[in-house]
Amino acid sequence: MSKFWSDVIHKLTPYVPGEQPKLDNLVKLNTNENPYGPSPKVIAALKLEAADSLRLYPDPNSDALKAAIAEVHHLQAKQVFVGNGSDEVLAHVFQALLKHSRPLLFPDITYSFYPVYCGLYDIEYQTIPLAEDFSINIDDYDQPNGGIIFPNPNAPTGIPLSLATIEKLLQKNTQSVVVIDEAYVDFGTESAVSLINTYPNLLVTHTLSKARSLAGLRVGYSLGHPDLIEALIRVKDSFNSYPIDRFASAGAIAAMQDTAYFEETCSKVIATREALINDLTQLGFDVLPSGANFIFAKHQVKEGAELTALLRQKNIIVRHFKSPSRIAPYLRITIGTEAQSKALIGTLTELLLDA
Ligand SMILES: Cc1ncc(COP(=O)(O)O)c(C=O)c1O
Fold it and tell me: Residue 221 above 90 pLDDT?
C-alpha cells in the first residue's frame, strides 16, 4: 500500500499464476505446458533471428505472422489479431469489446484471470454457476448481457462443449460479443473457428503456449470479424505498438507452419491423457471428462489439498484450488510425458497404500 497508488491499484486483486519452481528434477504438472519441446523448425528459425536485424523494431502489424495464422484457419489476415500471449489478447478484448452497461457473463468456475481483467478495467460482471456435473449450461446465458466469455474446453474442469452447442448460443445471443477462449482446443475439442464467417459477434482466442509448445515465447491470437479485430488493434496501438518481437514472430510462424509436428505431439498428449484417466480411475479417482491437456480429478477418500502436499514432498507438482469449496477436493493435473505419468501413478499408488 502506498499513498502514491491510484485508486484502481488499491482495489486490484491480481491473478496468481501457477508456481514456476527454480528446482530441477521435478515432475512439473501444474501449469498446463506441453511436455514436448517446440518443433525443431522453430528452434532453427529462432537461431536465424539472432542477427544484426535485432537493432531494428519488428513489424508493428505482424503481417507475416497474421498471414501464417490465417492460412492455418482458412481465414483472411484481417480477421486475425496477435498479442504477447493470449493473456494480453484477452486483456485487450475485455477493454475493447466487453465493457458495456450490462454485465459481462462468465461461469463461476473458470479461468481466474477473467475477474481480474474486470477489476482492472472496471467491468461489471455476473458469474453463472456451472451445472451439478461441472458443465456449462448455455441456456443459463440466455439473458441480457454486455458480453459472454468462457474457455472451451473450460478451465480448470477440462470439460468440452460441442460445436453445435456453441452455435446454439450464438443463434440466441446476437446483440453482444461472445468470446470462446480456445487455449486448449487442440487436445480433442471442436473449435468454433468455422463459425466466424457466419457470426460477426464471435471472437475466438488461441495461444501458442499449449499445443504449439511455446509458453516461453508468449504469443496468442484472436480470430473474428474485421470490426472486432479493429477494436483490438486500436487498444494495442494505444498501449504497445510492438507486442510481437522478432524472435516471437519467427518462432510463431515456424510453429504455425509445422502441422505434422503439431499433430504428432497433440496425439501423444491425448493418448497419455486417456491412459492416465484409466490408471487414476483404478486408484479410486473420479475424473471429469477432458478435451484439454489436463484433467480435473478427485480422490474418493483423500482430500485435494493433502494429496497435493504429499505429491509435492515427492517432487511432483500439480495444481490445487482452495476455492470455491466445490472444487477444493480436486487436483488439476497437466498431462506430461508417458514417463511422468508413470511416475505420478507410481507415487500415488504408494501414497494411497500408506494411507
Ligand atoms: C483458459 C486459458 N486462457 C488463456 C490462457 C493464457 O495463455 P497464454 O497467455 O500463455 O497464451 C490460459 C493459460 O493458462 C488459460 O488457461
Answer: yes
